[in-house]
Each structure stands twice: as structure tokens, then as C-alpha cells.
Design a protein that fits this description.
747 residues; alpha/beta; eight-stranded mixed sheet
Length: 747
């Protein structure tokens, strides 16, 4: 019985370590491989770039470039400006930048276009012969004319100078020079008119402002005099006057009245809430004097009377007339004491009311005096504000009057700030780019576009082609790379049996295909620790990936030694093992599991490989999954483990049916066959996940049908293939006419 859990071998651990340490980024070698694979795209893009470059080189127009230079400087007019900080010397960079923008403005260029009638100029429009009449009043024509001017006119500031360079390109040398000179002339005229009109506008505005300021000065002066008359004095000092003295005295009186009210209220609150017997203590603590004589005498008399009453009661009894008389005297004294205590409380309340009334009257007088002081202060503040307003208006009026006289002198001086350094002259020859340079540039552009398209196509390609790509996607090691084989004339020899015609390792044992199967055998036998795997399952993600071919040839390779090997066709839905060996499918795995035949009756042999037994699928059963997961299948595998050294199982695709997943759990090693260019990344990842979740001992990936001439695998078996001397790299055929096999030597 196959073990369910297989420990990873040192080879597999090493592969996983290398895979984990390998960077997933695209290396230079991988990029070169991609470009070699997409070389057709590169060649097409390069040829198109060269063709377009040749067309551009021979069809480029004869462009005439004219140049003009002007200097924008501050001039003597900056000394007479209203604000000298606005002069050119204050911020030359921003000033010259603004002038560059003005030279490219739509208003200036539209003026030039109107004066030169550019919308009807064939040289400007790039037309041959006459053109139909157009008007700049048409918005569409105006927009096209301005766009053409903006495209051909270049204005740039020469660094660290005050010089602006203008360049214009057209099909006519005369037009280029005339247009530049016209732009410069209109710019100078515009600068003069704009600055002159601006100065005139400032002068007119200042004249209007002076009239308003004059009226404001007169009004401020009148208001200041009115406040002085209302105060009744000049030079008033608010810190030394009767009002301030009275206000200070009232503030002191108000504080004293408040203290008296607090003391009276405190005395009244205390006497109102304490025990009448302790009232003299409170009076003593609040007033700081001794106990009142009346209360002391009454309390002393009450104490003496009570003592006499107690003595009489003890000697004469409670009903004796003297006892009753003495008791009446005690009650009378107690009443007088209560009356005196009430009087003291009433007197404290009256003192509190008087003190509070005194405080209120003092505070009222204080507030009234404060109101008068505030009113006088407001008058003083208003007087100060009016005085400052008068001084400010007078200063501003005098300053603007002086500036107005300066502005009258400044008008008309700004035109001297622009000088023409070099006027535009018609160029002697057109400016043309070398043809070789254009072709070379287009070649490079085509190459870059081809590289971009190549990597774009590579990123959109979901097929798996290279070993590194498959290992990166599946996180599984690659067990072997099986090259694509072609059916040769030797394999079609009618003298060959069916097995020899279909099993390549029997016909060409020294071909690259056979060597790749031997490499796969080595990887599988070293995939488990302790002992090699006995049950080896070959499966695939989808149909037509070559798993049956790999399983059949692998079984023959394992049987070439002294090992007994059994090949089981477990694909009970679309069996394909028996026709490759020319065997019958009437008996096989399905009849054996259902009890129709015995193991000995079901197993078949082929003479080409004596150590190989084949268990065909047999008739297609109605429920294949139930048969493969039955106890009979488990018993069959246990019996095979005793009889054979290796058992190779060909299973259905695991994404199509669940048969392969069921069988994978009962094997020692599972190899996932992937066909180059057929399987996609998502399919391989999904198949790997199914096997891992099922607990299958998946060993690695077998990349099948590899084109060794593709860029990814060139040199995989050497520059020209590492094979036996005298043997073709694809097939093995006798090299002598007598049919004798030459000696097997390495080349």
C-alpha cells in the first residue's frame, strides 16, 4: 500500500530554497529572451520606423527661420515713475517674463495678422497658388490664423540679459523676416500707447481724488473745532480735573459702604441662625466687645430665681404659695430675656438695612459720576480722532498734489525703454534636418515602440512557456523538460510493431526525448527520502497535455533495467494507453475492480519490454469515480506493491473529473504534466491547489512538448544538442547500411 505522506527529498528542498531566494523581478536575461521571442514584432516596428523616417526625410518642407532681437531696459523714465519700485530694475525677471507673454499675446498677433492680411497669404498658409478670400472677422479663420502664428513664432529670453530673441519659421524667407519686423514694430507701438494711456488714466484719477480729499480736509477741520467748542476749553488734560477727584472720592466711599454692609449683614445672618443662649458670644465675636449688661443681668437673675425655686420645692413642695410665686417670677424673667434677645436681632437687621441703603446710594452716585467721566472721555477720543483724520487728509492731499505734477512729466517717456538690437533679415538658405538623422530617430522610435509592444504582449500572454515562469506560478520544482518530437520515417516503418511506432523510447532510445525521460526518472526516484517512490501518478490540468505519452514512455524507461514495472491506465472515461501498445481493451482495470476477471487475466505484456506489464482500462464503466475510490482499488494497489518495483498510473485530468484527485492520495509521487503554450497560469495554479488540498504528495511539474528552438530553451541541451555521436538529435536511426548500431559514444 502506498504511503499517504511523503517527506520532501533533499533535491526538492534545494529546489524550493532556490525558488524562494530567486527574485520575481524581470532580469536582463529574461528581457532579452522576451525580445527574442517577439523578434517579429521588433522587426516589423523597426521596418515601419525606417520607412516612416525615409518618408519624413524626403518629404520635409523647406523651412526658412528668421531671427530678431530686442532689448527691454529701464531707461531714464524710471526716475519719474509714481512708484519707483515698479521699475524694471526692481524685478527684472518678472518684468521681462511679462514682456515675453505680451509678445505672444493674441491681441498683438491679431493686430499683425490684420495689417499683413495673413489669412489670405499663400506663403503663410502653406498653399500653392492663390487662395480664396477669407476674413479675420470669421471666428474659425481667426482661430486658425492665431494657432498657426503661435506654432511658428517662438519668443525666448536670453539668460542673464535684458534681450529677447524672436524666431519665426515659414515657407518664405521674406515672409519670415517681414512678420518678425512687424511684430517688433507693433510691440513697440503698443508699449508706448499702453504706458502713455495708463499714465494719463492715473493723472485723471488723481485729479478726481484731489477734489474729494480737499472736501474731506475741510470737513475734518470743522468737526474738530466743533468738539473743542463743546468741551469749552483747549488743551484739556483729563488727568487733573474736578471730575477725576470726585470720582476717586466716590470710589473710596463706595468701598467703605460695601465693607459696612458686609459686616452688618454678617452680624444679622449670624444672630438669626444661632441659639439664643449663645447670642452674646456671636455679638462678642462680631463686634469685638463684652457681653451686654442687660442680657447678663437677666441671665444671672434667672439662675438665682431657679436656684431658690428648686430649694423651695425641696422644702415646701410644689403646691406651696411661695413656690408658685417663685415659679411665676422665673417665667417673667425668662420672658424678659426672650424679649431682649428679639430686640437685639431686630436691631442687627435694622443696621444691615441701613448699611445696604448707604451702599446703594453711594454706588448710584459713583455710577453717575462715571457716566459723566465716560462722556467726557468719548468727547476727548472723538476730538483726537478728528484731529488725526484732519492731519491724515491734509498729508495725503499734499502728497497726491505733488504726485500729480510728477505724473504729468512722466507721460510719453516709456517708449524709450525698448530698443531693436538686431532686426530680422531674410535667411539665405532653408533650415533642414539631415535625412540620416531623421531616419535614425525614426528607427530608434520604432525600436522603442516594438519593445513596448513586445513586453505588453508578453504581459497579456497567460500561457506558460518557460521553466522559471512555471515554477514561479506553481511554486513547484520542475522535474524535467520534455522536448517536442516529430514522427520520423523510421517510426512509420511497417516492420515496427504498434508499440514501437507509438513509444518513442523504444524506437529512439538515444534521442533527446529519451534523455529527457531518463532525467525525469532520476528526478522522480530522488523525490522521496529513504526509498524511491513505488506508485507514480501522471496527471494534467486539462486534456491533450501529453500525460499519457509521458506515462507510457516513463513506464518503458523504468522497465529497461531489472525492475518490474506495471503501467495502469486509470483513465476510465477516455482510455488511451492500450491503442499505443496495440493491446485489447476488453479486459482491464474496470473488469478487475468489478470482479469480472482476475489480476492475472487482466494484466497484458508486450514483447518489446519484457519487464513491463500493462493493465488497460477495460470497458468504460458507468461510474468510474466510485470504482477508483472503492476498497477493491485499494486492495489492488496493495497487491501491486508486493509484485512490482514501480507502478505507473495514467489518470484523467484533475480539473475535468475527480478521478485523478482520488488516485493521487494513494500514490507516493504525483507529477503534473504541463504542455508548453497550452496551459494557462490560472489553470495550473488551480490544479496545484486541488492536489495540495487533497493531501496528494505532489512532486513537481513536467513541462512537455517544449520547442527547443524557442528563445527560452535555446542551449538547454547545448548549443547544438548534447547527444550520442553519430545519432540524430531528434531520433535514433542506424547510421550504417548494414543496419548495425554504431558504438554509443558521447559527442
Amino acid at each position: 500500500m502506498a504511503s499517504q505522506t511523503v517527506q520532501a527529498s533533499p533535491v526538492k528542498d534545494s529546489l524550493e530554497l532556490l525558488d524562494g531566494g530567486k527574485s520575481t523581478d524581470t532580469t536582463l536575461s529574461e528581457a532579452l529572451i522576451t525580445l527574442r521571442k517577439r523578434r517579429l514584432v521588433l522587426v516589423v516596428c523597426i521596418l515601419l520606423g525606417i520607412a516612416y523616417g525615409i518618408y519624413q526625410a524626403f518629404s520635409q518642407p523647406r523651412i526658412y527661420n528668421a531671427f530678431a532681437e530686442i532689448e527691454v531696459r529701464s531707461g531714464s523714465s524710471a526716475e519719474y515713475k509714481i512708484d519707483p519700485a515698479q521699475g524694471l530694475s526692481a524685478d527684472a525677471g518678472s518684468k521681462l517674463g511679462a514682456e515675453v507673454v505680451i509678445l505672444q499675446s493674441d491681441s498683438l498677433l491679431l493686430t499683425v495678422a490684420r495689417e499683413m492680411n495673413l489669412c489670405n497669404n499663400p506663403d503663410f498658409l502653406g498653399a500653392h497658388g492663390t487662395v480664396p478670400y477669407q476674413s479675420l472677422e470669421n471666428p474659425f479663420v481667426r482661430q486658425q490664423t492665431l494657432q498657426r502664428l503661435h506654432q511658428q513664432l517662438k519668443v525666448a529670453l536670453i539668460p542673464k540679459t535684458d534681450i529677447i530673441r524672436l524666431t519665426y519659421s515659414s515657407l518664405s524667407a521674406k515672409l519670415s523676416a517681414d512678420l518678425l519686423n512687424k511684430v517688433v514694430a507693433d510691440y513697440i507701438q503698443r508699449s508706448y500707447e499702453t504706458r502713455y494711456l495708463s499714465t494719463q488714466r492715473v493723472s485723471q484719477w488723481l485729479s478726481g481724488q484731489l477734489d474729494d480729499l480737499k472736501r474731506q480736509v475741510e470737513t475734518s477741520q470743522e468737526q474738530m473745532l466743533d468738539i473743542q467748542r463743546r468741551l469749552g476749553m483747549l488743551g484739556l488734560d483729563p488727568a487733573h480735573n474736578q471730575n477725576a477727584t470726585t470720582l476717586e472720592d466716590l470710589s473710596v466711599a463706595a468701598a467703605q459702604a460695601r465693607i459696612a454692609r458686609i459686616l452688618a449683614e454678617s452680624k444679622y445672618r449670624v444672630m438669626q441662625g444661632i441659639d439664643p443662649n449663645t447670642i452674646e458670644d456671636s455679638i462678642d465675636s462680631s463686634r469685638g466687645t463684652g457681653t451686654p449688661m442687660v442680657l447678663t443681668q437677666l441671665r444671672s437673675q434667672i439662675a438665682t430665681a431657679r436656684a431658690s425655686l428648686a430649694q423651695l420645692q425641696a422644702t415646701l413642695g410644689p403646691n406651696h404659695p411661695q413656690v408658685k410665686s417663685q415659679a411665676a417670677q422665673v417665667a417673667e424673667l425668662q420672658k424678659e430675656l426672650s424679649t431682649e434677645e428679639g430686640r437685639l436681632i431686630s436691631q442687627a437687621k435694622e443696621d444691615f438695612v441701613i448699611a445696604k441703603s448707604n451702599q446703594d446710594q453711594t454706588l448710584a452716585a459713583l455710577e453717575e459720576q462715571k457716566a459723566q467721566a465716560y462722556k467726557m472721555r468719548d468727547d476727548m477720543v472723538e476730538y483726537t480722532l478728528r484731529q488725526r483724520e484732519f492731519e491724515s487728509n491734509r498729508t495725503l492731499y499734499e502728497g497726491l498734489l505733488q504726485r500729480l505734477r510728477t505724473a504729468g512729466v512722466e507721460a510719453g517717456l516709456e517708449s524709450l525703454e525698448i530698443d531693436i538690437v538686431d532686426p530680422a533679415l531674410p535667411p539665405a538658405a532653408p533650415t533642414m534636418q539631415p535625412k540620416s538623422t531623421i531616419v535614425l530617430i525614426m528607427l530608434v522610435v520604432g525600436l522603442l515602440i516594438g519593445i513596448v509592444i513586445s513586453f505588453l504582449l508578453e504581459s497579456l500572454d497567460t500561457g506558460l512557456r518557460s521553466i522559471s515562469e512555471i515554477e514561479s506560478i506553481s511554486q513547484l520544482p520542475s522535474l524535467a523538460v520534455v522536448p517536442k518530437t516529430k514522427r520520423t520515417s523510421a517510426e512509420q516503418n511497417p516492420k515496427f510493431t504498434t508499440a514501437q511506432r507509438n513509444i518513442a523510447v523504444l524506437t529512439s532510445p538515444k534521442s533527446q526525448f529519451a534523455e529527457s525521460l531518463r532525467s525525469l526518472r532520476t528526478s522522480l526516484l530522488l523525490s522521496t527520502t529513504g526509498r524511491p517512490p513505488k506508485f507514480i501518478l501522471f496527471t494534467s490540468s486539462t486534456p491533450s497535455e501529453g500525460k499519457t505519452t509521458i506515462a507510457s514512455n516513463m513506464a518503458c524507461v523504468l522497465a529497461q533495467g531489472d525492475n518490474r514495472v506495471l503501467l495502469i491506465d486509470a483513465d476510465l472515461r477516455r482510455p488511451n494507453v492500450h491503442p499505443r501498445f496495440g493491446l485489447s481493451a476488453k479486459i482491464g482495470l474496470s473488469t478487475l475492480l468489478t470482479g469480472g476477471t482476475t489480476f492475472t487475466q487482466s494484466v497484458q505484456q508486450i514483447p518489446e519490454s519484457p519487464n513491463l506489464d500493462i493493465l488497460a482500462s477495460g470497458p468504460v464503466p458507468p461510474f468510474p469515480a466510485e470504482l477508483l475510490s472503492s476498497e477493491a482499488m485499494t486492495a489492488l494497489l496493495a497487491e501491486c506493491a508486493q509484485l512490482y518495483d514501480y507502478v505507473v498510473i495514467d489518470s484523467p485530468p484533475i480539473l475535468s473529473v475527480t478521478d485523478g484527485v482520488i488516485l493521487a492520495r494513494q500514490c507516493d509521487a504525483v507529477a503534473l504534466v504541463v504542455r508548453q503554450g497550452t496551459a494557462s497560469k490560472h489553470i495550473v495554479r488551480r490544479a496545484r491547489d486541488l492536489l495540495i488540498r487533497a493531501g496528494a504528495p505532489i512532486t513537481g511539474i513536467v513541462l512537455n512538448a517544449v520547442d527547443l528552438n524557442s528563445p527560452e530553451y535555446q542551449g538547454y541541451y547545448g548549443q547544438s544538442g548534447y547527444h550520442y555521436a553519430g545519432v540524430d538529435s531528434e531520433t535514433w536511426e542506424p547510421q550504417h547500411k548494414d543496419g548495425q548500431t554504431p558504438p554509443a559514444t558521447r559527442g
